[in-house]
Amino acid sequence: MKKGIVIALAVVVLLIVLRPFARDYMDLINYNREIESLQIESPEIQNIGDGEYPGEYKVYAIEARVQVRVLSGEIVSIDLEHEHERGYNAEEITARVIQEQSLEIDTVTGATHSSKVILKAIARALCTSEEAVCEAP
Questions:
Q1: Which pick of 6, 60, 91, 113 has the fewest CB atoms within 10 Å?
Q2: Residue 15, exposed/middle/buried by CB under 10 A (0-12, 13-18, 19+)?
Q3: 4 in a domain, yes or no?
Q4: What is the DSSP-derived secondary structure letter of residue 88?
Q5: Which run of H or E residues covers position 11?
Q6: pTM above 0.70, yes or no
Q7: Residue 96 falls within a domain, yes or no?
Q8: What is the Cα Rg of the chain in Å?
Q9: Residue 51 located in a structural domain
Q10: What is the pLDDT of residues 16-74, one digit of tens each?
């Protein structure tokens, strides 16, 4: 009888100890699913009116806030605030967007998740324009 109680208590203690790890594991799974399923709209930039457009997007520990400036149908600047874990290299993606005048660009190697979050924030900014045609900003 004592042996059964000791085993039951050990199982309960083990479950209590492991519960936070299980929650973290599920958060990681949900985080990866959200990043993998992220759809980034790419409006026709030449149709967007002059102005400054704010946008933001967050997935767990990665967050991007942007201010996209459009002039004469071109993106001329992107101000970025980027909170991340290891994805600081992704910040160079704003220069790529300006150079290519498109959101359909490759992500930064080693910073794929941050790259996608930044691109989504830019897409949300551009999709706030009245001229933009976006399905789901």
A1: 6
A2: exposed
A3: no
A4: G
A5: helix 2-36
A6: yes
A7: yes
A8: 21
A9: yes
A10: 765 666 565 566 666 677 778 788 888 888 889 999 999 999 988 899 999 999 999 99
